[in-house]
Specification:
This is YhcH/YjgK/YiaL family protein. InterPro entries: NanQ/TabA/YiaL, NanQ/TabA/YiaL_sf. The model has no long low-confidence stretch (mean pLDDT 97). The longest helix is centred in the N-terminal third of the chain and has 10 residues. The protein is globular. The chain has a single domain, classed as Sandwich (Jelly Rolls). Strands 1-9-5-11-3-2 form a six-stranded antiparallel sheet, with helices on one face. It is mostly beta strands. A hairpin with a 3-residue loop joins strand 2 and strand 3.
């Protein structure tokens, strides 16, 4: 997991061949005026989703404690304040249901080991080994999630 501000995004472009294109896309957009919806950046290799949702309680968010096998998430806070639960996948022991290959998601019944906050202008990179429960907060949260195909 990597947590930083969009101003520092160039530091991470070399970590994956598609990160440079993903961060260039982010810098070219007026995130605050983007409509909710899906945006194709580079075919199915790089897809963004913008959504605005009410924040969830910690308990409610932890019901969907998730990770992905075939994608890296770049999650960007556009407005509101969000907390995200996190735990390394290697420490998760309680698989919750079967892996869903269509949605590329696995769920766990484990509890996060830690929580971190995100404010507008910050992003987190979540790799397949990062189990996470997003959208914890009060009020409305607008964010973008870019799915980077591995």
């Amino acid at each position: 997991m990597i947590l930083d501000t969009l101003a520092n995004s160039k530091k991470y472009q070399a970590l994956h061949p598609l990160f440079e294109k993903a961060f260039a896309y982010l810098s070219d957009q007026n995130l605050s005026t983007m409509a909710d919806g899906k945006y194709e950046i580079d075919g199915d290799r790089l897809v963004a989703a913008v959504f605005t949702k009410p924040g969830k309680s910690t308990e409610e968010a932890n019901e969907k404690f998730e990770c992905h096998d075939k994608h890296i998430d770049i999650q960007v806070c556009i407005s509101g304040k969000e907390s995200i639960g996190w735990k390394p996948r290697e420490n998760c022991k309680q698989v919750k249901g079967d892996y869903n290959p269509e949605k590329d998601v696995s769920f766990y019944a484990d509890a996060p080991e830690m929580y971190f906050g995100m404010e507008p202008g910050q992003f987190v990179i979540l790799f397949p080994e990062d189990v996470h429960s997003p959208l914890i907060g009060d009020g409305e949260i607008k964010k973008m999630v870019i799915k980077v195909k591995i």
